Structure formats: structure tokens, C-alpha cells
Amino acid sequence: MAGPQPPLVNAFTHHFLTGGRFATITVARNHAADILAEKVSPGTALAKQVDEAIEASLMRAARNLVQGSSTTHEAYDRLVDLHDRQPALNVRSSTSVLQQAYSTPIPIAYLASTLAGITPETTVYEPTAGHGALLLATDPARATVNELNPERAEDLRSQGYQVTQHNAVAYQPDQLHDVVITNPPFGAVRDAQGQRQRFALPGNRRGTTQIDHAIAFQALAAMKADGKAVLILGGKLGTDEALRSECYNTLESRGFFYALYQQYNVTQHITIWGDLYRKQGAGFPIDLIVIAGRGASKRLLPAAAVPPIYKSFTELKELIPHERLHHQTTDLLGIRELSPDLETEGNGRSGSVSGAGTSGPAGDDRRDLSAADAAAGSVDDLSLDDRNQRTSGNNSSPISPGPEQTVFPANPASPVHPRDWRTQPHRPMGGRVERNPGASQRDADHQVRTPKQLGLPDVRAAPERSSDSKRLAERTRRRDHPGDLVELPDRRDELRQLPMVTPEISPEQNQPTDTQAHNVAYVPRSKGTSPGTLIPANMAAAAQTALDHVEQRRGNIDEFVCQRLGYDLTEAMWRVLYAEQIDSLALAFEQRDQGKIFLNGDQTGNGKGRFGAANIIDAQRQGFIPIFVTRQPDLYNAMINDLADIGKPGFTPFLTNNSLTLELDDGRRLRTASSGEQEAEMLRLVQQGNLGQDYGAVFTTYSQLQTIKNKEPFRRQFFRALAPSAVFTFDESHEAGGSTGQSQSWRTSGPPNRAEFVRELIDGCAGAAFLSATATKDPAVMDLYARRSDAMQAVSSLSSLETILKSGGIPLQQMMATKFVASGQLLRRERSFENISFEAQVVPVDREVADGISAIMRAVDAFDRTNAL
């Protein structure tokens, strides 16, 4: 495919330099169609040429803007403005995606160039040059430029560069350079058989599967002993510093950084937020690493001193020293057809446009450049798809060195030795203060302030670090020898699993309210035995208020519940029900008598089963038809056991399932008939108006409430007929609410789905109780409970409840839950895990299988996190 057309490049450059902008790529293509007198249709080769022309013009416009600026900050501000005016280049050709050809954003390229100390007098090596973004400040005559992609290589030549087209993994220039700067593609590459390729790393006999690591080390061999380098490599997902530390401490990642920090003087290491890459068609975080000469770095490894995250171009500007620019007077190449009196917006200066740059495409053997590897990648096995693999220029036909072969020379032209400290020291990256690794990451809405602005000393040397940082550093130093990495267990499967540490607690601290920060001890109103549960602090007072109201209306709570369940003595009830269960039952019975619902949100292990069984007994004793709804048929046996435990052995329910055989723990066997016989029995019960002496309750599952081939089964008519005389007990009631995250709305045509049908039953039944520890986790299902509660008085319609709760967020949802408790329609308790220890056992595993499974899970997690950004 042909490269960018010169007329388009010139026209787009003029457009950008005169203050023009393109809101979308469609607008830019329409502009190109006017110039070419030819329609530019999406997905065509011409459309890709237009996109490439935009990128090439951005480089030329950027060089012109830098030449017209008097200071580094002025140049940077103009480049940010240029970036804001460019369209998002989200549409990629199959070749550019395969080659991972995502160009470096112009402001980030200028930052890297400035931190590298590039001037027109500097000799520079760029192994994956793309359109030349990282070469903005160079003299083309003093730059060694490599770019495998033929179209971009040709564009670089048009800017005056001498260009080679070699595989950057293996290519080594003949001479050493003042500066090495690169933004290679990242991730793993595979051979024709689909196997991940492993590349050699000097100082790490294990090597690496990461193409950006291999290219970076190979390029650094071309740096002078006292030279400088800036590497732009794949970063780590997320903002949590502990998790990011684990990402940097995986076997693959730590092996690379240990070798890099031992052989090169790394002076700065930061992470740039992926959102700053969005206009280039990618969105993955990147790491920017600054090197000042050879020799071991004094910095802690990134697993110990997690790189700070910069989330805006404003924050990145703080890293650029505010200095005057001294431009060379030689004529620059690039867009000879432009008018010599072309002026840029706001500066009144003229000048020809030259230079460009991005990182180039990936490899010459396209088959070897698969989509981002699911088990490796720049984030060490956080799987990336092609859309997340930004940058360009791989030049990557992977080489798999054997015992006698390596992609690195045995005796590089410049041996590794301590840096000559008599050379001019590198320029620090602004006045950033080193931060505690435990502190929160930078917020995009807050600008970074200098130490002077904060009233703090300018910390250029390594500061005193927190105990957390020292712990991480000590953990890193314990594994200092790179050869030991081969024997270390592969920690990639621990990426999302942090060790659980139980701190020592003094006796005066050993209180539930101290160790359970958001919970307090629940004080039951019943005098029965209590297991010592906790209740959310915001619900504690509300629960006592609700129990007060019950006592005011019903008298002693134990006597009230005892009478409803038919026990002769409260002591007999206390033997089978906890005090917490009795409190919940008192509230549930009180609400039912008022025609309202009750929600038991107790955590698993607090006896919701016996609470449900007691509701069935009470409904039966009050003359209602008990209907128990649960997730699956084997839970029928559990409920029958709970009924037996509280004094109702031999309970026989009517099961709505067809042709079901159920083996009970009490030795009985329940069998149901075929579909026709079941329907006949349902019809008999409906005509009878009650369950008679044959059954104590109706047991069904949520699947039994669904439509069949979009038609309503007879069972639905059965439940509709019984509902006015029935009290429903919904076990695992979140199953009744519908799909998580989806609001439920009544349809105007077709039979109601399961969630709609459940709501219909609740509206028409005599009463309902819900049992679920996760009942209220989704605002979309809150109308299920609200429809027969006091919440009806707080909203104009149930359809608006979900929107209101989502708009109000967590604070409003917590307030609503508290009001539910205060009204007597909700209780939630949980057990304390005080003094319970958790010990992980190390067991042998199949490493290859474990790696594969963990890579898949990390890919899912990475995808979810990326979509949530």
C-alpha cells in the first residue's frame, strides 16, 4: 500500500499550523476528499493513506511549532494544543493493528526528547522511528534512524533522514550515540507454530518473551558510556500500588528491570496514564524510563518504589525544565511546497516544517506478530488485545537464540562499566517530590505542585521512605542475584493475590468495634441465645428503633414469636432458634400483618434457613398457603431439614417440578408425576382453594416461574390463582430480581419474563419474605422489595427508583438501607471473624496449566478494569 500522499501531508500541515482542527476522522477525510477530488470511504486503502497523512502532517507541524517557540514550556503548550486539535485515529488497518503501529502522542514525544537532552548537536539512535515523533529536536544529519515499515521509512526519508530497515531486535548500528530513544511495540510475539518467542537479555540468563524489553536492551548497546536514553515501554494496569508492585515483581518483569537497573543508571521511572494515548487509537499505560549513562542505578527497583502515575498533560509539564530554546539556523526539510510566509497561530513566526515521528510498525514476518499475548505482554501476562498494544515499530522477526547464538553481541562495542562521574550530570525531571508508595495515585483533576509550592525541600536524592517502602525494598533485595530468578517460583499467577497478613493486636485493641471498623455488635431484643453477631454501624440504631415499635404494638418479642409459632414455652423456642432469628421473625410477622414485606439480609451462616422455615409455619398457622421458592430442587431437602429442626418433622410439600425424585435426609423419597398429572393436581388444588391435608406448602424453583418457548406454562396460572391466599418465602431472592445490572420494566406485549412475573405475584399475594445476603447489591432490583414497603411513599413511581438510587450513588443507597431497617422491613447481621486465622498451603501444581489459567483470568480482569476507566 502506498504511503501518505505529499499533497495531503502539505494541506493537513497548513491546516494545523493555521489553527485548524478536525473534530473527527470523518471530518478530516471529507477535507481530504475535497483536496483529492475523490471520495474517501471508510475501510479503503485511500482512507488509510489519509490517516497516515494526518500523522505525518502532525510531525511536521510539531517541528514547526517547536522551532517557533522561545522556551520549552511554550513549545510543550503548543504541542498539547496541537494534540487537542487532531482527530482521534481510532480506525486502524489490519496491517497497522498487526504491526502494533500506534504513534507516540506529540506532547509525550516532546517530553521524552527533552528528558533525553536532545539538541541539534546530539547524535541520536531511534530503532523504531515510525514517522519520527521522538526525533522532533534532532538534526536529521546526526540521527541514526531505523524503521522496518516501508511507507513510514519513505516518509522519514522525505524529512531528510537516512533510514535503515532492519529487525530492531537484532540490528546494531556501527557507531555509539549520545542519546538512545525508543518507543518499541510491546507484548509477546509468536512463531509460525504459535509458540512464544524468548529473547536473550544481557545480565539475565532466563531472557524475556517481551519484544519491547528485547528491543530496548539491544538499542542501549548503541549508547555511549556517558550517554543518555529514554525508553517508553509497556506499563502496568490499575492504580493500586500494592497490585502494581506485584506486577513489577513477577518473574519476567523483575528479571528485566533488575538487569536494566544493574547495568544502566536509571534516574527516573514514571507511568503515563493510558487515557493520554486515546487519540492514537490505544489506551494502555506506558512507562517512561530515563537513563543517564552506564553503571548500576541508585534507585530502588520498581517493585519496591512503584512508579508514580501521571494522568494529564498538565502534570507531565511539571517534568520539563523551563528553559530557553536555542534553535539551529540551518534550513529544515519537510514540506517544500508550503508558502515561505506560512505563519503559525499566535506566534507570528514563519518557518518551514520538518521532522516527524512516531514509533514504527512491527515486524517483517507478519505471521510472527500475533495479537497481544494472553499470557504475557508488557504487563507480564495481563492479556492485551491488539487495540491495547500501542506504539509502533517492532521490526520484529523474533530470534530464538540457541546455545551458540544470541541476539546480543558477546563483546559489545561499549562494555558495561561504572559511569564516568566527571561528565555533565543529567538534568533532573523537574521538582517532583518522591511519594510514599502507600499514598494514593495522582488524580487527573489535580495538578502536580512543585516542592517550592508545597513549602517542602527539593528532594533530588532518594528520600527517607516509609516502612511499607522499606519492606518492599527488602523483599526486592532478598532476590538480588539475577541468576537466582531462574529458580524462583513463577509469581505471575499471584498478580491479583496479595498475601494476607494478620497484625498483632494489643489486648486493649482486641474489641469488635476496633477490628471491624464498619460494624458494631448487634444487641438482640430476644433473650434467647445469641452467637454474637455484628451489624453495620449505620443500621444499629435503626434496628433498635424498629424493635421498639414491635414491642410497643406486640409486647414482649419472645412471647409474640413463641405464640405465632405454636411453642408451649419460650425455652423450647430458644433451643431451636437464635435470638437474632427471633428478632427477625418478630419484624417479619409484624410487617406481614400490615400487608408489607420483610427482607432478611443476614450473611451466610446466620441461620436464614430456619428463619424461612419459621415463616412457612407461621403462614400455615395463620391460614395462608405457604409457597417456598428457591434456586434448585436439592435445596428442598435443606428446607425440609430446617422445618424438622424447629419442630415440624415429616413435612410434605407439593413440588411443582415434573418427574422429580428427591431423596430426603430423613429417609423418605419424594416423587413427582409427569407433566400432565402434575397439571391435573395443580388444577385440583386451585379448585379446592387450599392445600388440604395432603401438603404443608408448595415448593418450587425460579426456573419453574419462567416461560417455555415464550409461552406461559400452566404453572403460572396455578401461582396466580393461589397468590391472594399465599405467603411467599423467596430464598436467594436476588434470583427473583432479574439479571444483575439490568433494570426490570413491564413490557407492553408478550408474556412477562421471570422477574416481571415475580413482581406480579408480590403485588397480588398475601405476604412475602425475602432471604438473601446479596439482596440489595444492585439498585436495579430494589423495586422488587420496595413495591410492598414504606419506600413506596418516598418515590412517585417504582420505575424511577432505580434511576434515583444510581444517581445518588452509595451514600443514598446506604441511607435507603438504613431507612428500610428503621421501618422494620430489613435486618442484616454477620458473624465476626475475630481470632480466625487463614493459612495458605503451598501445593505442587502443573506450572504450564496454572500459567494458562491465571493468564486467562488476568485477561478478563484487565478487560473489566479497562472498560471501567
How does this model look, in words?
- The protein has 869 residues and is of the alpha/beta class.
- The chain has 26 helices and 22 strands.
- The strands form 5 sheets. Strands 3-2-1-4-7-9-8-10 form an 8-stranded mixed sheet, sandwiched between helices. It has a 7-stranded parallel sheet with strand order 15-18-14-19-20-13-21. Strands 11-12-22 form a 3-stranded antiparallel sheet.
- Helix 1 crosses helix 3, helix 15 packs across helix 25 and helix 18 crosses helix 19.
- It is elongated.
How do you describe this structure in short?
Helices cover 34% and strands 12% of the residues. It is an alpha/beta fold and 869 residues long.
SSE blueprint:
Elements: H1 6-17, H2 25-36, H3 45-67, H4 72-85, H5 94-98, H6 106-115, E1 124-126, E2 143-146, H7 150-158, E3 163-164, E4 177-182, E5 199-201, E6 204-208, H8 211-220, E7 223-234, H9 241-248, H10 251-263, E8 264-272, E9 286-294, E10 309-310, H11 313-317, H12 451-454, H13 467-477, H14 512-515, E11 519-521, E12 533-536, H15 537-554, H16 557-565, H17 570-576, H18 579-593, E13 598-600, H19 608-621, E14 625-630, H20 634-645, E15 653-655, E16 661-663, E17 669-671, H21 675-688, E18 697-701, H22 714-722, E19 726-731, H23 754-764, E20 767-771, H24 782-786, H25 801-822, E21 826-827, E22 830-831, H26 847-868
Parallel strand pairs: 1-2, 1-4, 2-3, 4-7, 8-10, 13-20, 13-21, 14-18, 14-19, 15-18, 19-20
Antiparallel strand pairs: 5-6, 7-9, 8-9, 11-12, 12-22, 16-17
Helix pairs in contact: 1-3, 2-3, 3-4, 4-6, 15-18, 15-25, 16-18, 18-19, 19-20, 21-22
